[in-house]
Each structure stands twice: as C-alpha cells, then as structure tokens.
Amino acid sequence: MNHPLHFALLLLSLGFLCQTTTNAVLMDKLAYSKICADEECSYALSMAVALDDFTAPDCRFINIRKDQMIYVYSKLTPEEGTGVFWSGSVYSERYVDQMGILGYFPSNLVKETTKFKKDTDTVAIPTADVDFYCF
After folding, report:
1. Of 9, 17, 73, 113, which is most buried by a Cβ count within 10 Å?
2. Which UniProt keywords apply (predicted)?
3. Does residue 39 sit within a domain?
C-alpha cells in the first residue's frame, strides 16, 4: 500500500472537517425541552398548513409560504417570556428547493391538519446545543 498517499488523504479529510466545523455558530436556545414522536425526533408528529408567510430571521428557522404544507417533527416547550416554535420541513411542489430542510417556525402561523401521533403517545426530551447550531 502507498502509505504517503493514505496519509495525505487523511490530512485532507481532517482539514475539511476542521474547516466545516469551525464555520458552525452556536445560537441561543429557543427552549430547553421539546415534544417529539420518538426519542430521535425522526417521525413526524403532524401535518400543518401555513396560514401566512414567514421569513426566517436566521439559519435555525425555515421560510414558509401561505398555504404551504409542513411536516411537524417537534414542538418546543416554551419558556416563560418566549414564543412557541415548532420544527419541521416544508412540502410543496411550488417550493421544491426548500423541501427536506428542517427548521423552526412560529406555531401560531400554522394550523395542524392531520395528527400522526396522539399527545399521550409523544415523548418529552431535553433539547441539545446541537439543535441550535447555524452552519
């Protein structure tokens, strides 16, 4: 095997990892706990429709457009004096470029249309710092 080549590839990979991780910025927590369908928040809690447009103020949030469908994956448990935010991903043929992007949005700007989980079947878990990183 060519050890210098492997070593060079390893250094290149580490350099790439260091470069991508140093661009991440830890943002303020929006809440200290959240409600999810499972421990990993990988299953949607519900479907919602946007009642109005919302423009994301930073990378933790997603843009939503009126009448756009949204998969809701978690609901942040509000702290005193803070707004109520949910996280999700938009679904719409008109805004395909936004599909698959997870982010937060104000819960008062959407209306739940379909619940996939009963409130009694959800899991309350603490949020982690990684929930609020901006890349």
Report:
1. 73
2. SH3 domain, Signal
3. yes
Contact 88, 107 (CB under 8 A): no
The domain in which residue 113 lies consists of 25-134
- Burial pattern 82-111, b for ≥16 Cβ within 10 A else e, equals eeebbbbbbeeeeeeebeeeebbbebebbe
Please state the pTM of the whole predicted model.
0.73
Decide: helix, strand or coil at residue 98: helix
Q: Give the count of domains, the chain.
A: 1
Residue 14 banded pLDDT, cuts 50, 70, 90? very low
Beta bridge partners of residue 35, listed in sequence order: 75, 124
Residue 43 lies in a domain: yes
Q: Which two tokens stand for residue 96?
A: 């395909």
Question: Which three-class secondary structure state does DSSP give residue 61?
Answer: strand
Closest of 81, 71, 127, 83 to residue 107, by C-alpha: 83
74 vs 131, residue with greater confidence: 74
- Write out pLDDT tens, residues 34-84: 999 999 988 999 999 999 999 999 888 999 999 999 999 999 987 765 668
